[in-house]
């Protein structure tokens, strides 16, 4: 099998142009360009996702359960979280 020369490439281009018509060729080229652009952006996004993903942290032993502090007398905290006096009355 030999390589294609200019003559063979020209004949193939003319045959494709005759088969598909002059109206469909620009639409097909536009669609191909959009597809390649989308493919390029998706592959670039996949590469960026791999680079941005941090290394998995080493697993540590589970910490013992912590006791939840009781609400203060003035009602400004519930379970260690600051709240308004109205919310403290509801709880």
How would you describe what is shown here?
Belongs to the TatA/E family. It is found in: Cell membrane. Keywords: Cell membrane, Membrane, Protein transport, Translocation, Transmembrane, Transmembrane helix, Transport. One of its GO terms (biological process) is protein transport by the Tat complex. This is Sec-independent protein translocase protein TatA. The protein is mainly α and 91 residues long. The chain has a domain of 53 residues. The protein is 58% helix and 4% strand. It contains two helices and two strands; from the N terminus they run αββα. The protein has a two-stranded antiparallel sheet. A hairpin with a 2-residue loop joins strand 1 and strand 2. The N and C termini lie far apart (85 Å). The model has no long low-confidence stretch (mean pLDDT 74).
User: Percent helix among the residues?
Assistant: 55-70%
The run of helices and strands is HEEH
Q: Can you summarize the main beta sheet? A: 2 strands, antiparallel
Give the uncertain stretches in residue-range form.
Answer: none
What does the overall shape look like?
elongated
Roughly how many Å apart are the termini? 85 Å
Please give the number of β-strands.
2
Kindly state the mean pLDDT as a whole number? 74
Number of helices in the DSSP assignment: 2
Going by helix content, strand content and strand pairing, the class is: mainly alpha
Strand content: under 5%
Rg result: 34 Å
Order of adjacent strands in the largest pleated sheet:
1-2
Region (Disordered): 45-91
Protein name: Sec-independent protein translocase protein TatA
InterPro entries: TatA/B/E, TatA/E
Membrane topology: Single-pass membrane protein
């Amino acid at each position: 099998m030999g390589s294609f020369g200019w003559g063979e490439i020209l004949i193939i281009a003319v045959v494709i142009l005759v088969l598909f018509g002059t109206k469909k060729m620009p639409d097909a080229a536009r669609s191909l360009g959009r597809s390649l652009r989308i493919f390029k952006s998706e592959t670039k996004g996949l590469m960026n996702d791999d680079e941005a993903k941090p290394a998995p942290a080493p697993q540590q032993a589970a910490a013992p359960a912590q006791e939840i502090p009781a609400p203060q007398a003035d009602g400004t905290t519930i379970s260690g979280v600051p709240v308004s006096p109205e919310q403290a009355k509801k709880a």
